Every structure is written in C-alpha cells, then in structure tokens.
C-alpha cells in the first residue's frame, strides 16, 4: 500500500524480537533509525491526498472482507467450491487495492476542489481515460455526482 | 539535513518486544532516543489504518515489533 501511494515501504519496519533479546532490540532500533534517517524527513502535508486515500482504502469494507476471506479461499474454496492458489489470491488483492486506492485518490482530489476530469488527472497524475472510467464507478456507488456542464466540460462534486 | 532526527513510532508487543525494550533498559544497553514506543497487547493488533494515521500525524518511520 505504501509503495502504491508513493510513500515507500522502506519507512515501515517489521521485526520479531523475543522478550529475552534486549541486544537484538537495541540493534533493530538502531538500524531502523539509521534507515529512516537516510530517507530524510517525511512531509505529511505533501502526501495529504495520498494518505487520506490510503486510509480510506485500508478501512474499506471491500478490502477488509477480502483479507478476512484469505484462509477460506485458499484452503476451503469459494462459493463454487474452487480452491484459489495463493498467487492468484495475492494478484487479485493487489489489483483491487490499486483500483480502490485510485478511486479514493480521485474522490479526495474532487473533494479538494478539482471539478473536471482534466483537473483531477493533472492533480494526481493518472491518465485521463482511467480517471473518467473510475469516475463512472464512483458515480455508480454514490460517492461523486455529476453536477452539470461548465464551459462544455462536465463538472463533478463529492456527494 | 545532517542533524535530522527522525521520529519513529514503535508499536511493541506487550509480551515480546516491549519486554525486550524493558530488558534493554535494565541492562543499560544503548539504543537511539528516536523511537516513541506504543505498547500493544499483540503486534497483530496494529491495523494498517493506524499506520497511515501515524504518518498523517507526522512521524517519519514506523517499527512494528512482535
């Protein structure tokens, strides 16, 4: 998720330390600090749109359901009795994550005041046709509405 | 930016990493003061949303240790 949002997964570290390994704790905190110091300061203001979109995505029902279904789909099978390969499950969840994230990014951009497809595309750096395709989806799920034409351009607003 | 000190939020599991941090303190081991420990009852409790919120609030890095 952090990579998709352009923040980079290097800012997030994960480690397993037993309660008896004080030395390992000291080593890991030192290496984490060095790594993050090397990356430099993280300015959350320049990533405001991306962070909000990521938060919406990770908290969304779609993704949470899918994460919760992992064991069932890969070991038990789906409603049709098909067992999913782990790779297939992962590629599906990656695709959905990216799609939902882009949708939420568009939503945030419109909320911020970008009204036309061109403005949104310029603000978040996603191609025009993809923006209009995902906008249609956002309209269908009642998150964004079409409010009319202005200078022969369709105008959108957050519902 | 040579004197930049990163702010790192550390989510530590109560039973493993937090105890090891405690032990590191008792054994007087040196570790950087950049980490801001948050004790959680299990590192599995750390929701991805919480991590994004931490970045939103302006931390530079996150460590999840279990």
Total of helices of chain A: 7
Q: How far is the first residue's CA from the last residue's CA of chain A?
A: 26 Å
**Please, what is the oligomeric state?**
heterodimer
End-to-end separation of chain B in angstroms reads 32 Å
Overall pLDDT metric of chain B? 91
Element string of chain A (H = helix, E = strand):
EHHHHHHHEE
CATH topology of the largest domain in chain A: Arc Repressor Mutant, subunit A
Determine and state the CATH class of the largest domain in chain A: Mainly Alpha
Runs of chain A in which pLDDT lies below 50 for 5 or more consecutive residues are: none
Task: Give the helix/strand class of chain B.
Answer: alpha/beta
Which residues of chain B sit in consecutive blocks of at least 5 with pLDDT less than 50? none
Number of strands of chain B: 3
Write the SSE topology.
The complex is a heterodimer of chains A (159) and B (66).
Chain A: E1 12-15, H1 22-39, H2 48-58, H3 61-68, H4 70-76, H5 86-112, H6 117-124, H7 128-140, E2 144-150, E3 153-158
Antiparallel strand pairs in A: 2-3
Chain B: E1 8-13, H1 17-26, E2 35-40, H2 48-56, E3 61-65
Parallel strand pairs in B: 1-2, 1-3
